[in-house]
Amino acid sequence: MASTDARSAAGVNGPTRARIGVKTLREDRWWLAPAGTFVVFAAFIVYSTWRAFSGANYFSEPYLSPFYSPCLSNECVPGSSDFGQPFGGWPLSPALLILVFPLGFRLTCYYYRKAYYRAFWLSPPACAVAEPHTKYTGETRFPLIAQNLHRWFWYAAVVVALVLSYDVLLAFGPAEGESDGIHMGLGTLIMLVNVVFIWMYTLGCHSCRHIMGGRLRHFSQHPVRYKLWGWASKLNGQHARWAWFSLVSVALTDFYIYLLATGAFDDPRFF
Question: Most buried in the list 2, 78, 160, 176, measured by CB within 10 Å?
Fold first, then answer.
């Protein structure tokens, strides 16, 4: 077991590190990426926190905000509870019953870890840029050891994605004042694009790739899992892209439904 002195010397001032006095020798604008990540993440945190705690303006028939789906509290507005209201005594916003699962999935995601470790904790802020911390313990202590829950959050994220897919099907239904039948509005398309991005992000997850093909000694004996592993691997190659696309799309989808619910404008209906 490493001694205390050895652990404390494992940071940028460790005995095996080059003795370079400056923060970095890079001459490019290396700070743009972590700064941009910080701004976008901070904006999403502020917006999603406001919307999650507001508990209002999240349903405009037939559209339900992804922040509130499924809506399981008796505080849900009429028409928004497609799976019942099992949490009848819940005193807070209905979104707080649901968001813990997609939020936990994203917080423990391998890509997001890299992004916010660099942007918020400067650990390190960029490649070949010294971090300000004098020691490194990795994800072996609380709270970062909880990152190991990522696989379990993935299972919950799949359930959430299925529910959001069902919401898209409902979005092809009639809005208030329309007759029965299949209808489609701009909100339908926005929700459809959002759920596609969410599925691309969820199925391209590193844990999904491991679940599909991990611990197999012979792919030839498991052709179905090998095919699924191949598909997940292709999505995994663009995991960062789907992570960003889905993060932005879920916020825009919620904001669009918020505008409809507040009466800012009417949803354009195509048929």
Answer: 160
